[in-house]
Amino acid sequence: MGPVVRVAVPERSIVHDLRAVKIVLHRELIRYGRDRMRMVSGLVQPVLWLLVMGTGLSNLMTAGGGGAAGSHVDLKTFIFPGVCAMTVMFTAMFSAGSIVWDREFGFLREMLVAPVSRSSIVVGKCIGGATVATLQGAVILALAGLAGVPYDPVLLLELLGLMFLGAFALTGFGVMMAARIQSMQSFFGLMQMAMMPMMFLSGALYPLAGLPVWLTVLTRFNPLTYAVDPLRQAVFSHLSLTPELRRTFDPGVTWWGWRVPVGLEIVLVLLIGLVLMGVAIIEFRRSE
Q: Of 77, 110, 158, 173, which residue is 20 to 30 A from 139 by alpha carbon distance?
């Protein structure tokens, strides 16, 4: 009988978990950097919304007295914050979908049997997905001038921070969905079913004021609404607009007539992201 070989598995610790978060985040960045087609395809739809739809419908805007030219508010300027939110939404959800891909090829099982907590894997995935989505959104910010949005450094930093926060919540939502899904086809079908209503009910493409009651209720229960509105308020605060135009195109989100402060919206998005990430952690602890 040969000698007995003892294999020592290191005990789990916070240091190992933090290293696992870093490794998962690094892997997400490497995958994003090597996938040029993903970068390009992720920009096609937002650019179409911004430049094609925005330009085509700008003539329908009849409000007067705003902007540098003093004539009207360009539709491209109005939808620019919504396009930023849509960009990070699609990228964040696709990033979360890579979990299903890893499951199909067996890589996820190797990650789950590593001597680190499964929560660290989920946290790394959420932060990595949010970082990748923010990088994708930064490309849209480079087009701000085409939408009549000033290249103000403070504004750009605000938008980047808000996009990261929204991307974190959306990645948490995607990871939660991907925790139990076994095939990419099922994930993409469920993703489309979730993303399209979220996009159209967020106020990304139209003001939230003056809507029918049933539509108003749906928009208030949509988490993406509270990610889009701070982006729009940040953009419009750097434009020269009359109070009438500001109320028309930047009405904000109201609860029974009370306008929700931006700070509360940011806290809501953060809490939603943390709750969704927590649910995803529970799902991963039950899976595999």
A: 173
Q: Using alpha carbons, list the distances in angstroms from residue 63 to 49, 74, 91.
A: 21, 9, 34
Cβ pair 88, 166 in contact under 8 A: yes
> Which residue is associated with the tokens 């109201």?
254
Q: What is the DSSP string of 32-56?
A: HHH-HHHHHHHHHHHHIIIIIIHHH
For residue 205, give Cα distances in angstroms to 71, 200, 284. 21, 7, 35
Q: What are the residues facing 254 on neighbouring strands?
A: 259
The CA-based dihedral angle spanning residues 58, 61, 65, 71, taken in that order and rounded to the nearest 10 degrees? 40
Phi then psi dihedrals of residue 259, to 5 deg: -75, 125
Distances in Å between the Cα of 247 and the Cα atoms of 72, 158, 216, 242 are 14, 21, 17, 9
pLDDT in tens, the chain (288 residues): 556 656 555 566 677 778 888 888 888 888 887 777 777 776 777 778 777 777 666 655 544 444 444 446 778 888 899 999 988 988 888 888 888 887 777 777 777 767 678 888 889 899 999 999 999 999 889 888 888 889 999 999 999 999 999 999 999 998 888 888 878 778 888 888 888 889 888 888 888 888 888 888 999 999 999 999 999 999 998 888 778 878 878 888 989 889 999 999 999 999 999 999 999 888 887 765
CA distance 234 to 85: 13
Instruction: Check residue 255 and report its DSSP letter.
Output: E
Instruction: Check residue 245 and report its DSSP letter.
Output: H
- Structure token pair of residue 104: 């199909």
Residue 195 CA to residue 177 CA, distance in Å, equals: 12
